Amino acid sequence: MTIEDGPDVGSNGAHAVASLVHASRRAQESPRAAKFLESVTAGGREVVGIHRAVAGAADNADAVFRVGWGLQTSPDLGRRELELVIFSVAHQRGAQFIWARHEQLAVPEWLTPDETSAIRSGTYRESMDGKSTSTCDFALAVSHAEGVEEAAARLARHMAPAELLTATLAALYYCMMCDLDNYLGVGIDEREP
């Protein structure tokens, strides 16, 4: 997905917007892709703005968008596990906008309200199965940059290598996006009507 595939929409975020237009074509092919696109477009300028800011320039926003798109639509990691990674990292890093966006997207389709509450309160080990618990533990280890090797070994008991690699990339990507969310001060009540 590149800007060349989309229409010429001018400067100031053209790559991100054109990526969304092109993505809408791909969303017709996959319900998972359609759900991701719906999330991005519903987030409005904050979601596109985060991608632009992390890229440092509109010219690079397409590449940043593609990473998120690739993680959201990857067949290598189940959507439930991806959302466990996102919620764990968003909670640990205090990224309320990302938490709220994914709460709208993932609950109740992939996670229950009780599960997101358990992640927020740190009690997820009491109510989730081994794979889910290991996924949360791993995401938190990556986010804290402590105990990653041990957490990865535990998670490897439940995941194939490609799945574990994608979980690692997702945790790192969302650490970056959550930190940027906090740096920019994107709030959940700042959306334009």
Primary descriptors:
193 residues, mainly alpha, AhpD-like, 2 domains, 11 helices, disordered C terminus
What does the model show?
This protein has 2 domains: 1-73, no CATH class; 77-187, AhpD-like. Helix content is 73%, strand content 0%. The chain has helices at residues 14-27, 31-42, 44-55, 58-73, 79-93, 96-106, 113-121, 124-127, 130-144, 148-156, 161-184. It is globular. 42% of the residues are buried. Residues 1-27 and 189-193 have low confidence and may be disordered.
Number of strands: 0
Low-confidence residue ranges: 1-27, 189-193
CATH topology of the largest domain: AhpD-like
Major sheet description? none
Chart the SSEs and their pairings.
Blueprint: H1 14-27, H2 31-42, H3 44-55, H4 58-73, H5 79-93, H6 96-106, H7 113-121, H8 124-127, H9 130-144, H10 148-156, H11 161-184
Helix pairs in contact: 1-2, 1-4, 3-4, 3-11, 5-6, 5-9, 5-11, 9-10, 9-11
